[in-house]
């Protein structure tokens, strides 16, 4: 994120590179940088003759280079943006010669999503020397909550930990999707609002009472009534509550419980750091550790593996609702 800010700041200051090679598993920041270049370097009167958007599936490297070697018309620069550039992965090595001696008045941008250049190759070294290579890495699930907090802080909003967790569990680690949902919230809430689970439920449609976060908490507390109420809701709404996600999140929870039992330092800060969770949630692990000793946690992880196999149709002829009910019964008893 700091790298992105630096790139954007340099562009604002006119410190431009002839090649921007934007690559990696997380498309959100690739699009963010590319869109900024597309919208900010040329003014509207210059774009008609000097800004071109190409798509990797429709052009060759030779055609891109030929366009890049042209001079701008009545402007200081021309901008060429190659979207879906990963479709050129088989011939991308042909970029090497141009990268060694790029046209200074051309800003050539490659959006090379879900893949990356091999650092050992000559083309990587040539682009890195004359231009800029940015690798956009996928965030781990336990990093997304902090990302949400920082994104909202930059827009003068805040969010409660439970609301943030609800978004992560419902939307996963897709930053573009999360960003779109945050924009929805911001559009209806006044600046400086602290976003709560109620805001998330009312504006995004994630139930504040019937979600995996609440199920995990109910299981940790051994609250049989609440856990069964939630799984009955899941069984009636399987599309919004896929079994595979519930199993995965419960497995993460009990795997973290194993780590918790093995910790010597059980101070809140130490536990949060070791488990990769917000300190707000540490009390949930403290409570669960009293209800589930290490031996029981190990058994539960085995039960979760069995449920995962059954959910894929191996060795069982049960509905996902029945598999979930059986799983929760075995965990709680």
Structure description:
There is one protein chain. The chain is of the alpha/beta class. The protein has 17 helices and seven strands. It has a five-stranded parallel β-sheet, sandwiched between helices. Strands 6-7 form a two-stranded parallel ribbon. It is elongated.
Outline of this structure?
With 333 residues, the protein is an alpha/beta fold. It contains 17 helices and 7 strands. The strands form 2 sheets. The protein has a 5-stranded parallel β-sheet with strand order 2-3-4-1-5, with helices on both faces. It has a two-stranded parallel sheet with strand order 6-7.
First and last CA, distance: 45 Å
**Mean of the pLDDT scores?**
93
Helical segment count: 17
Strand percent estimate: 5-15%
Strand order of the largest sheet: 2-3-4-1-5
SSE topology sketch:
Layout (H helix, E strand, L loop, with lengths): L1 H11 L6 E6 L2 H14 L3 H7 E5 L5 H8 L9 E6 L11 H6 L5 E8 L8 H9 L1 E4 L5 H14 L3 E2 L1 H11 L3 H14 L5 E2 L1 H8 L7 H9 L3 H13 L6 H20 L5 H8 L6 H10 L2 H18 L8 H13 L1
Parallel strand pairs: 1-4, 1-5, 2-3, 3-4, 6-7
Helix pairs in contact: 1-2, 7-8, 7-9, 8-10, 9-10, 11-12, 12-17, 13-15, 13-16, 16-17
Index terms:
333 residues, 7 strands, alpha/beta, 17 helices, elongated
């Amino acid at each position: 994120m700091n790298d992105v800010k630096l790139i954007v700041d340099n562009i604002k200051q006119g410190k431009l590179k002839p090649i921007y090679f934007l690559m990696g598993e997380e498309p959100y920041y690739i699009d963010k940088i590319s869109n900024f270049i597309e919208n900010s370097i040329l003014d509207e009167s210059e774009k008609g003759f000097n800004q071109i958007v190409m798509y990797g599936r429709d052009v060759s490297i030779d055609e891109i280079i030929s366009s890049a070697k042209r001079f701008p018309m009545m402007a200081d620069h021309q901008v060429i943006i190659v979207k879906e550039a990963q479709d050129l992965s088989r011939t991308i090595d042909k970029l090497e010669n141009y990268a060694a001696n790029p046209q200074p008045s051309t800003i050539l941008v490659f959006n090379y999503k879900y893949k990356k250049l091999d650092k050992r190759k000559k083309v990587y070294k040539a682009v890195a020397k004359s231009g800029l290579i940015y690798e956009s890495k996928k965030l781990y699930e336990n990093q997304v909550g902090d990302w949400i907090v920082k994104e909202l802080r930059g827009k003068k909003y805040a969010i409660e930990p439970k609301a943030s967790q609800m978004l992560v569990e419902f939307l996963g680690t897709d930053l573009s999707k999360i960003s779109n949902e945050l924009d929805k919230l911001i559009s209806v809430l006044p600046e400086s609002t602290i976003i709560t689970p109620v805001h998330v439920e009312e504006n995004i449609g994630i139930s504040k009472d019937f979600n995996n976060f609440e199920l995990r908490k109910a299981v940790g507390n051994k609250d049989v009534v609440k856990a069964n109420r939630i799984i009955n809701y899941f069984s009636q709404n399987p599309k919004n509550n896929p079994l595979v996600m519930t199993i995965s999140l419960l497995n993460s929870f009990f795997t973290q419980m194993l780590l918790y039992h093995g910790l010597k330092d059980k101070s809140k800060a130490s536990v949060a750091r070791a488990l990769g969770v917000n300190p707000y949630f540490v009390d949930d692990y403290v409570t669960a550790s009293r209800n589930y000793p290490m031996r029981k946690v190990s058994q539960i992880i085995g039960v979760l593996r069995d449920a995962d196999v059954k959910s894929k149709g191996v060795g069982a002829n049960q509905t996902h609702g029945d598999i979930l009910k059986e799983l929760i019964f075995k965990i709680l008893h």
